[in-house]
Amino acid sequence: MRRCPLCAASTTALYHRDRRRDYYQCATCKLVFVPPAQHLSAAAEKAEYDKHQNSPHDTGYRRFLGRLFTPLLAKLPANARGLDFGSGPGPTLSVMFAEQGYPMAIYDPFYAPDASALAQMFDFITATEVVEHLSQPGQVLTQLVAQLAPGGYLGVMTKRVTSPEAFARWHYISDPTHISFFSQETFRWWAQKNTLAVEFPGPDTVILRKSLSPIAMPSEKH
């Protein structure tokens, strides 16, 4: 039985197949994913990331990150504290927020594996070009939302699935480290399941907001 790595449902069907990998889609949350047997080893995955040349001094990279940075910055209250999750070999988004006066922590399993960052609460968390690399996106996203203060924001950047036809010729699936592919429908499903408000500032960005107070459950009448 092939379980969805986002919602754990077992109703999945082949969505696409190319020369290297298979891609399945979950009938419940619509996530498209590569089965675990076809994932890279951790060493091979890191070797791919080591090729990245991202840096806070690269104005083009800053402009790219601006697609999430700009709409998220507009929502943040003064002194909001943030975490850049999956900061990569050249942390940049954290530098951009720090330049605007927001204290930042970073975490990356390969380049900044400081587990203490995963035991703190934050007013906002960013994950840019991260979720498509996750073998267990449901587990990771649940963990990140748990680290958000009430009313806090989770800002995600990832390219989105639109149709099987577009998927078949999509450059995004040629990266061997990309194994989880979200659509707008997937994000809406996940937001509703976790009582989050969701908006899509751009074609590859999503901002999720945690409710200010726990949802009160109706009391049982005896």
TrEMBL record:
<protein>
    <submittedName>
        <fullName>2-polyprenyl-3-methyl-5-hydroxy-6-metoxy-1,4-benzoquinol methylase</fullName>
    </submittedName>
</protein>
<dbReference type="GO" id="GO:0008168">
    <property type="term" value="F:methyltransferase activity"/>
</dbReference>
<keyword id="KW-0489">Methyltransferase</keyword>
<dbReference type="InterPro" id="IPR029063">
    <property type="entry name" value="SAM-dependent_MTases_sf"/>
</dbReference>
<dbReference type="GO" id="GO:0032259">
    <property type="term" value="P:methylation"/>
</dbReference>
<dbReference type="Pfam" id="PF13489">
    <property type="entry name" value="Methyltransf_23"/>
</dbReference>
<keyword id="KW-0808">Transferase</keyword>
